[in-house]
Design brief:
The protein is an all-alpha fold. It has one domain: Up-down Bundle (Four Helix Bundle (Hemerythrin (Met), subunit A)), CATH 1.20.120.450. It is about 55% helix and about 5% strand. It contains 4 helices and 2 strands, in the order ααββαα. Helix 1 packs antiparallel against helix 3 and helix 2 runs parallel beside helix 3.
């Protein structure tokens, strides 16, 4: 990878792919079942990361109006409507990844985001800072999913 932009794009693609591989590799009865005391499910994590990208990149950095920036939560918890299928959730993440890529490719990493409600009165960060945040969020949550997968079938690693 020849540039910082390519590094960010490469890692974001890598983590999205690993997330989808792990979720799609789980038996259907494990997708909406939690194995952890905190109670989150694999499909809730998938939906959460889709919204995280939208919140930071589109709503935050670009300042776009979005209908429900916190639509992945309900009563303080991650939430997925019962009628939302794994296929729909997967498509949403892939589509969001494409939108994120388009934003990253069309802006300088040093560019500062648009002021708006995402920042709650604080100064918006640069695109690079936002991408660092996204990478840590993906790394942390895919690591959480690693534990769930290990509990389900014993497999470990990437």
């Amino acid at each position: 990878m020849g540039s910082r932009r390519e590094v960010f794009l490469g890692y974001l693609d890598f983590y999205r792919t690993k997330l989808l591989d792990k979720v799609n590799g789980l038996p259907g009865n494990e997708l909406r079942h939690s194995r952890l005391p905190s109670g989150w499910t694999p499909v809730e994590l998938l939906r959460h990361l889709t919204f995280v990208e939208m919140r930071w990149v589109e709503w935050g950095f670009e300042g776009r109006a979005v209908a429900a920036p916190w639509g992945d939560t309900r009563e303080g918890r991650w939430y997925v409507p019962a009628e939302e299928s794994l296929s729909q959730l997967t498509t949403a993440l892939v589509t969001q990844g494409e939108r994120t890529r388009a934003v990253i490719e069309s802006h300088d990493l040093e560019e500062i985001g648009q002021p708006g409600p995402r920042w709650d009165g604080s100064d918006p960060p640069t695109l690079e800072r936002i991408l660092f945040h996204l990478l840590q969020e993906y790394a942390r949550h895919v690591g959480h999913l690693d534990i769930v997968v290990e509990l389900v079938d014993g497999s470990v690693g990437e």
